[in-house]
Every structure is written in C-alpha cells, then in structure tokens.
Design a protein that fits this description.
CATH architecture of the largest domain: Alpha-Beta Complex
CATH superfamily of the largest domain: Medium-chain alcohol dehydrogenases, catalytic domain
CATH topology of the largest domain: Quinone Oxidoreductase, Chain A, domain 1
CATH class of the largest domain: Alpha Beta
Largest sheet: 7 strands, mixed
Number of strands: 15
Number of helices: 10
C-alpha cells in the first residue's frame, strides 16, 4: 500500500494511505523519486517553525525530484514522462511583486509546498504545472533532489554578482554552503575561501571549488574580499561575514539564525559602504539558473548525499539531520 508522511502536530507524525490527487486545470501530477530533508523540515516536526509559516496537519517535503505522470486541462501533454523539479512558493502571479519577478515576496501571503500545502513526502505530488522546471532526459533524479537548496543559493549568487577575478568567501559548509561554492566557482573568482567550524569539511569544500579553507575562529576580519555569501545561519555568521569584506564589498545573507544572534553594526555598514542583500527562497530566475548549471554539469550535488531511507524511516531521518559529522544530505525515497 502506498503511504505518505503526515505530521499531525509538533512531535507527532504517522504514515497514512496515499491516493494520488488527479491534476486539475493547470496542474501536474508528479511521481516523486526522492525528497530531501533540511533544517526547516526538522522545525516542522519539532514545532519551532515560526507561526504563519506552517499549517498542521501536513505532509512535509519541499526539496524533491520526480517524473511528470499526468497533467490537467490546459497543460501540454508533452510534459508527461519528463523529469522535473519544482518551485515551492505558491505565488499569485498577479500582484506587483510577482509581475516584477519577485515571487517569493508575493503580497497574497505566504504559501509553500511542504509547509502550508501538501509536500513531497508521499509517492506523488500534485502542484501547479507552472512551477515545474524540466530536466534533461536521463538526468540523475537523486542528485536533482538537491536543486531546491541549489536554487536558493543561486538566488544568492545572482545577487552577489560575482565577476571573474573577484575575491569571494562563503561562510558555512553545510549543503547550502557547498552548493554556493560550486555555483560561485563557475564565475571564475581569483580566490574562493570557505569558512566553517569543522576541520573535516575542508576536503569536501575543496572538491566543491574552494581554493582555501579556514575555521571560524581563524577569521581575522578586514581581509578585503569583494563578495561574501553567508550560508550558515549561526549566531555570529552575519557579523563574521561582514568582517571579511573590503570597503564597498557585497554581502548576501541566506541563513536564518535563532533570536539573539549577533547583528550588523549600522555604523560599520555606512562607513564601509557595504552592500547587503538577503535571500529567502528562490524566484523563478534563480531556479532556472540552478537547473541550467545542473544540466551543464557545473552543479554536481550528489556527493553531499550520505543517507537514502524509505519514507517509513521518517523518524530516523529526523534524528539524523544535523546529527553528526558523518551526516550530510538525507533523502527519503517513497
């Protein structure tokens, strides 16, 4: 029997029978191949995701890959059989922000697959076909399950505007940091430093494009970097990242730290004329950027996957996420 994960309430989940929902007008039905787990899924399970950004009971799963199995009225039949990934934000497409391409800022309110809408921790997922991004025939769907976090760091890379010869740093060596390194390395920086808290991440960092590696407590500050992308979400990550920049440098923040994190000194920002950007989710252009890089072989996330488990092991997967030095990306397979 096909089953899906349902988180009934914080700390409480069960496996329930799954019946695919036929796609309505403008929708597509996807056969899920794999679904990734990130810290926000753990927040859903534990109950510490901010109010308004989750709706229980819920089938989680916003990082996924699969194959289009059916389409509704108004959707080209040629999509059936295509491998695909998909955006999570359910934007309205008619507000000013959506028309400007900033779909993650949709004024209709927050709605996202796996948080307020049914997610991919199930054998199938039905969603608006306009959210799909098609992959090349034969694409590795296991690797493609990491394209959602890749799209988020693609949004950061696009805002960073790295030019060939720039000195670039990435703070954070988790999934987001490693994917950011690969995308930024494709822009031919003169130097790509990665900053982490574990010495055992250096080998992986260099494999993903880093030319130098440093532990957090070895950062001196005022090191003249043109661009820094923060992908850690740790309490001191933003301030550490800003300290690495030259005057007039560009900072992109992607992590969401816990309350009480170190802030950025507004005097320092003004006097040094730092350019600060933030990223929450990924608009269509960032998704397209990540998918193109993946199709071209510039983005190869598969080495980050350390565990693949069946949906029935959801509880174990939650325990694994963030659970030790040998745990990278955890995938569930319906």
């Amino acid at each position: 029997m096909s089953r899906a994960v349902v988180v009934e309430a914080p700390g409480s989940f069960r496996l329930v029978p799954h019946t695919p929902r036929p796609p309505g007008p403008g929708e597509a039905l996807v056969q899920v191949h794999a679904v990734g787990i990130c810290g926000s899924d753990r927040e859903v399970h534990q109950g510490n995701r901010p109010a308004g950004y989750v709706r229980y009971p819920l089938t989680p799963g916003h990082e996924w890959s699969g194959t289009v199995a059916g389409v509704g009225e108004g959707v080209p039949g040629a999509l059936v059989g295509r491998r695909a990934v998909g955006e999570g934000f359910r934007n309205c497409q008619v507000c000013e922000r959506c028309h400007a391409g900033d779909t993650t800022l949709c004024t209709a309110g927050y709605a996202e697959t796996g948080f307020t809408e049914p997610g991919a921790m199930a054998p199938t997922l039905t969603l608006p076909a306009r959210l799909l991004h098609l992959l090349p025939d034969g694409a590795d769907l296991t690797a493609a399950a990491l394209l959602e976090p890749a799209a988020c760091v693609a949004a950061a890379a696009l805002k960073a505007g790295v030019r060939p010869g720039d000195r670039v740093a990435v703070v954070g060596t988790g999934t987001l940091g490693m994917l950011a390194a690969q995308l930024l390395a494709a822009s031919s920086p003169a130097e790509l430093l990665m900053v982490g808290i574990r010495a055992d991440r250096e080998e992986t960092a260099r494999a993903f494009g880093a030319t130098a590696y440093r532990l957090h407590d070895e950062v001196r500050g005022d090191e003249g970097f043109d661009v820094v992308v923060e992908a850690a979400g740790a309490a001191s990550a933003a301030s550490t990242s800003a300290s690495l920049l030259r005057r007039g440098g560009r900072l992109v923040l992607t992590g969401i730290p816990s309350p009480g994190a170190d802030g950025l000194d507004p005097t320092d920002l003004v006097v040094r004329q730092l350019e600060v950007h933030t990223v929450f989710g990924a608009p269509p252009g960032a998704w397209a950027h990540a998918v193109r890089a993946f199709a071209a072989g510039l983005l190869a996330p598969l080495p980050l996957v350390t565990h693949e488990l069946p949906l029935a092991d959801f509880g174990r997967a939650m325990d694994l996420v963030g659970g030790g030095p040998r745990v990278g990306k955890v995938l569930l397979r319906p």
